[in-house]
Design brief:
The complex is a heterodimer of chains A (115) and B (110). Chain A is an all-beta fold. Chain A is built from no helices and eleven strands. In chain A, strands 2, 4, 5, 6, 9, 10 and 11 form a seven-stranded mixed beta sheet that branches. Chain A has a four-stranded antiparallel beta sheet with strand order 1-3-8-7, with no helix packed on it. The termini of chain A are far apart. The interface between A and B is medium-sized, with 25 and 24 residues.
Chain lengths: 115, 110
């Protein structure tokens, strides 16, 4: 049981490049989400999904796309990277979308630098 | 989304109890109170959660005010490994979003 796995751990992009941050969980969790954390700040919600085929926007969705074709995977796509997207990105999953008394599990993060 | 307010930072001596406060005056009746902590260079990890009653687990205790407008995370004996940012989050019924605030940075002094 690996939990929530994020790849890559580190990435440097040039402005205008695109890339996909990968997130996979092996706990059969319905709910998955992406956050970004800027230096010295708390986490801000980018997008989330309550099941395969269902996604919705969080607090800061602009510049990012997501899809959820399987329960296990929730990739985050940067369409045209900008320096303002330099951040640490965290993926999280929770056991059941309808339950509010369960804990979320977070990945170890992807540190992205856009130059 | 319901908001929480926490002090920016707190200090504690090692092996002493720590009380981390959180205000959530706009909490609704079905909102759960969740606490997470983030160790340096790691993702957040679950600490404890509750609805109305006080809760205990192996990591901490959660004391919830009778009117539910505030709560306190209690670490019974702080260790150096407890130095982290602690987040108080309201998990709102009807949505599926964890909205993080800025949290409290806990410094533990040896």
């Amino acid at each position: 049981n690996a939990g929530v796995t994020q790849t890559p751990k580190f990435q440097v992009l040039k402005t205008g490049q695109s890339m996909t941050l990968q997130c996979a969980q092996d706990m059969n969790h319905e709910y998955m989400s992406w956050y970004r954390q800027d230096p010295g700040m708390g986490l801000r919600l980018i997008h989330y999904s309550v099941g395969a085929g269902i996604t919705d926007q969080g607090e800061v969705p602009n510049g990012y796309n997501v899809s959820r074709s399987t329960t296990e995977d929730f990739p985050l796509r940067l369409l045209s990277a900008a320096p303002s997207q330099t951040s640490v990105y965290f993926c999280a999953s929770r056991p059941h979308r309808g339950r509010f008394n369960t804990e979320a599990f977070f990945g170890q993060g992807t540190r992205l630098t856009v130059v | 989304d319901a908001k929480t307010t926490q002090p920016n930072s707190m200090e504690s001596n090692e092996e002493e109890p720590v009380h981390l406060p959180c205000n959530h005056s706009t909490i609704s009746g079905t909102d759960y109170i969740h606490w997470y902590r983030q160790l340096p260079s790691q993702g957040p990890e679950y600490v404890i959660h509750g609805l109305t009653s006080n809760v205990n687990n192996r990591m901490a205790s959660l004391a919830i005010a009778e009117d539910r407008k505030s709560s306190t995370l209690i670490l019974h004996r702080a260790t150096l490994r407890d130095a982290a940012v602690y987040y108080c989050i309201l998990f709102t019924s009807g949505t599926y979003k964890y909205i993080f605030g800025t949290g409290t940075r806990l410094k533990v002094l040896a």
